[in-house]
Structures
1.
Amino acid sequence: EEEEEEEEEEGSGVRVTPALLKATTGEFSLESILLLRLRGRGIAHLGCLADCSNLEWLDLSGNAIAGLAPLAALRALAVLNLAANRVASVEPLRGCRSLRQLNLAGNRLRSLRQLRCLQGLRHLESLRLRDPRGGLANPLCAAPAYRAALAAMLPGLKAIDGQRVAGRGSELFRLCRELDAALDGEDAPAAAVPAEPPQPWVRAGFWEARPARRSAVLEEATRQLGQALRECRELGRRADDSIAQAQRALGRRQHGDFGF
């Protein structure tokens, strides 16, 4: 039933085509596209998106997307926003090996079992299934303990729905809950647990400068800037020559006038 529903929805909306992508990005080659924003375009079918093999950042929020099959080919994709769509299965995202941030708020995911395919994404750090500010959620968010279950299923996550799940931040959250429980008259822990020494809330090397990441867009922009500078220097040289010639000609003319 879900497959039939996806086919009906995909057939009634906008399809991603090479012409659409080139008009949006200004790129002549789909492989050159690194960043793509297609928010709120009425898109129902991802079409040729698989041809954007070097895509790293993709925003598809606010569309009518149900099927994600073309995304399976995007090995370099690191950030994906699918908020406010009609996604009921994320199985194709298994192929997005570089994925770090994923926003699925406001879709049709009904069970955590549908997210098991994300367990192989070793770089996934942030997952959003609910966005209170935008009034977006998934049916599975109705379960009161879905965040804890999700954290257990995907232990590499550092943030769920925008909230930290590891490090000092989560410890502070736990202490606040225990304090609230004590003030409300609930039972306190039976035995006091010795306080652990404070730990840094970021991993070692977090503040160290990272090597610059190569980017085809940056390299092309640098090349074009260098060419423009060379052209400017050449034009300046020609202008100086023209001015010098004009000054010499003017000097000869003035000298001739003095002779009359």
2.
Amino acid sequence: GGPRPLPGQEVSVKVLGALEDGGLVERDPRLIFVPGHGDVVQALELGVPTMQPGEVSFFLAGFPYAYGHPGSRRCTTRDPDVPPEAPLLFEVTLLEVRDGPDPQPLPPAVRLRLGSQRRERGNFHFARGDFAAALRSYRLSLRALDGPATAPPGPEEEEELREQRVKCLNNCAAAELKLGRAEEALAACEAALRISPDNGRALLRRGQLLAEQGRDADAALALRRALELDPASKAIHTELSRLTKRQNPPSST
């Protein structure tokens, strides 16, 4: 009984997940998440909003809506690994629906965990070819990393926060490119370089994007700096060679 979850509301569910042979691979007596935030597999993202509090549902999820082609290797022995391309049967009990929480100050370690979790969900969506969902997860990861903290991070935590932000911004750029949004991709690269001016991945992509816009001088600067950092990179050599040939076309006889 009661209304189904609305967009932005937080839910608590009890989850059991089993393979076709009946082996349990998921067991969580109280999983809390906001549908749409990319924190759980797609089967739960799509299925739980159809439920009412107190309802028990079974979702048979094909592997694209579970753990995809690669499956899942667990970091602990609590649950076994999920094999590649494994369909799963989920038994889900919707325990509670609440209004979404306001951003709360979190310890740096929790911000790091949430940021990493959401970025990994973004990578999962990217691998499936769902680039809009990947971008949404990457942005949520950045929101967690940039959120208010209960205490200033220590030097090691600050460095890890910085590294995760740069990874996330690079991933945002890749997703934006897949969605055909070159300007947004360039903005993400430049945001990454403001944090880490010598990030090779961001420099290479920035050079490629600037070259596509015809800004050859700026593109060459970015690509040459990337080459200084990684002289053996074939991708950078290829981009610089392409740019040089365009700037100096062979003369015709």
3.
Amino acid sequence: VFIAQSRASGSHRDLEDEELTRIFVMIPKTYTEEDLREKFKMYGDIEYCSIIKNKTTGESKGLGYVRYLKPSQAALAIEECDRSYRAILAEPKNKSSESFEHDYYSNAMRPELRGNTLPFCMQPEFCSFEKAETRIQEPVSKRLSVVSRLPFIQEQLFALFDLVPGLEYCDVQRDPHTNSGYAVIQYSTAASAIYAKYKLHGFEYPPGNRLTVIFLEDGNDSSE
């Protein structure tokens, strides 16, 4: 057994519902919940849609949640919806929504802010996030880089990442000078790679040794 959840996290279904079926999207402020449902129903069965609103004015913040019945449907929506929605997996509800919105704006808006700051600096919240945040949005691909301070065993690492459907290959390399582990993992779809990174980045394998998992360019158009 490679992956186990803590006793405090509840049943597997609860964990699946909370972490893998809800997506967070950027939408026009004119969208209603029905508009949001209409745009995303093609990817699967939607349990509910909700739009985040300003608590004082009741106006839409241009952000919303879509929750599907299955993780595969949420992954399909993230992979295939229009890039303008900037869809990502939503944080569990136990994380502050304000904190999550802050992180989302900081990452999602950075490419536009680099190109032309004027439109977004008309809105104070974008300017404050730009000054406070230095992380750059990570490009998504079907290929992952896995780094460890300990060397990998090919068969064991393959078995670990093969828990996520769609594994195409696992290429383990070793640095003779540092004895650290390095591997390149590739999946058949970006959705599988997203899931693998989400579940295995920071995973302790073997116990006490955390894996670092990041996306690698795979030669395809990142927008696709």
4.
Amino acid sequence: MASRGGPRAAGTDGSDFQHRERVASHYQMSVTLKSEIKKLIYTHVVIWLLLLAQMVVGHLKLLHHDQVAMPYQWEYPYLLSILPSLLGLLSFPRNNISYLVLSMISTGLFSIAPLIYGAMEMFPMAQQLYRHGKAYRFIFGFSAVSVMYLVVVVAAQVHGWQLYYSKKLLDSWFTSTQEKKKK
């Protein structure tokens, strides 16, 4: 190549550098997936903080029990669901595969398992509400079982997508690791 503004080397139009300008697709995917997982983790933290606030208000009786009901049993183990999210965030700076795998396993144990248990625990109350229109627990005037089922559905989606994107991210990291070993 020639200097700026000078003649070009014979046989080139100056565009032969573009193949070196592209970022490998697995690196682009890694950045995109990390961003998506971070959004899901932040959404999870909001859900977690709302459940924590409900538990604190319920136990300390800061509001009348007609305003905020006592928590269901599944909410206590769900508080541990913050740990997988923290492990996921810790895995990002150095693409730590072991932290990401631990995050995925503990998401199933501390996040999804309590949600499944919660859906089963609240089912008789939901059935009673549906059949007889009777609710005994309330959260700001709404049936507590309805509100908490909504929380369970949203949280299950957040954790499901988090696991899906984490698996794709793990695959992306393995691709980059395999390419490094080939060199």
